[in-house]
Request: fold
Amino acid sequence: MAGLATVFGSGAMTNSIAEIEKTDVMFVIGSNTKENHPIVALRMIKAKKKGAKLIIADPRRVPLVRFADIWMQHRPGTDVMLLNAMMHVIMKEGLVDKDFIASMTEGYDEAFKKNLEDFTPEAAEKVTGVPKDTIIKAARMYVEADKAGIYYTMGITQHSHGTDNVFSVANLALMTGNLGKEGGGVNPLRGQNNVQGATDMGCIPNNYPGYQGVSLPAMKEKFEELWKAKLSDKVGMTAPDMLAAAEKGALKAMYIMGENPVVSDPDMTHTIKALKALDLLVVQDIFMTETAALAHVVLPASSFAEKSGTFTNTERRVQRVRAATNLPGQAMEDSRIIMELSKRMNYPMPYQSSEEVFQEIGRAWPAMAGMSYSRLDASGLQWPCPTREHPGTPHLFSGGFPRGKGRFTTVKYLPSLEQVDKEFPFLLTTGRLLFQYHTGGMTRRVKPIDAVSHESYIEINPEDAGMLSLKDGTPVKVTSRRGSITVKTKISKRPKKGVVFIPFHFHEAAANMLTSGTGLDPVAKIPSFKVSTVRIEKA
Reply:
């Protein structure tokens, strides 16, 4: 691992799921944990029953709020203001962990502290909508805990300033010494079963497997030797960059595996236009998704139950996966499809089994060098696991940070790019439901699930509904600067006045017809799914 930023950038939890039950305070921000990560939420509820405190910061009254000691209902896009205000309180009241800061960190200097001076609870109340006394209470509750863990998801990252949000979360943990200990840490919860493993294996444009930079000559040389091929030292394009290039004609072909960007990416109209501009679109998937319907070639792939290999989950745990049923029709294991394509492109990959691939992973990445299929058979292992005798790592940084010291980052508050006005007076935030998974490619084909959750809706506060003369179930037209959809209302006190919510699973009323694909986070290039402005009128 290259360091603290690498771990947070990879989305890996610094701590383990089981440790949640051993924590004193859980701070959940930007995560609808009970619906999106129900197993993790069960651990949190168990921790509560054992005496732990729970702080939640979320623009909606998510189901976990009923267990919360403190709920901060901040306006979408104001996370930096809220987190910096909590740090302001901790700094002003002399509650920082001085020993941890002195021995384990760098960057807690006058410039960092001076920046926090402006983030008073009073100033934060005006921006976030959270009462100043609640901010102070939350800051004290978090800092006074011996072990406090932070848990977040895409409510933190999917913003035009998502990287700043993550830096702020890290700053709070560093300031209070809540890294490198059991039950603490900074814990991003991954939303899909092997997204952590995909990131670990280099499915990102700037790294080889194991977060080893493609632009570093030593890494390039290492992987050229391992793979017996010449490699580029140029950082690749992100997904939004690819779509922009495709629309301009600069990118001619795309190969999409297990993704459905027509429904999951922002600005649906732009996504479809970009994909249709390609000379060649190849989609590898287990169902005919909305994206596959646009493809020139569809490669029938394998589900989790039809292949062998490993998945890596949100707590960095590498686990065996074994085929439980035969492949249907002409479907093939994903790895075999890749090897067959590669062979036809004059680069043979003569792997005889998934285990052989896994052995190569250990040679490529020291953090997994100590793992083997036989060692994974019991319950998996958490990286780093550098030797055959190493037990795996339940929580990171107990012996210090790989980069030497954890670094504070000075973060300014930047408002979201879209702000409400007379034409678009509502803030739209999007998310997931308990009964649906991602774009519904699998779950919407299950009749019992469809019976419970079969259509989209817009969640709207009763005051806003009354102002617009709307009743529960009224069809409305929701319009943003990108387009319009028609959807039924669901009057609810979950969102605060002026904020509405639409789930993104349903292509018939696609929330991402409304979201913006421009104004990306300048570092991570993530779109702002969580803050768009819309108007609402009866359909």
The CA atoms of residues 420 and 462 lie 19 Å apart. The chain is about 30% helix and 15% strand. The radius of gyration is 23 Å.
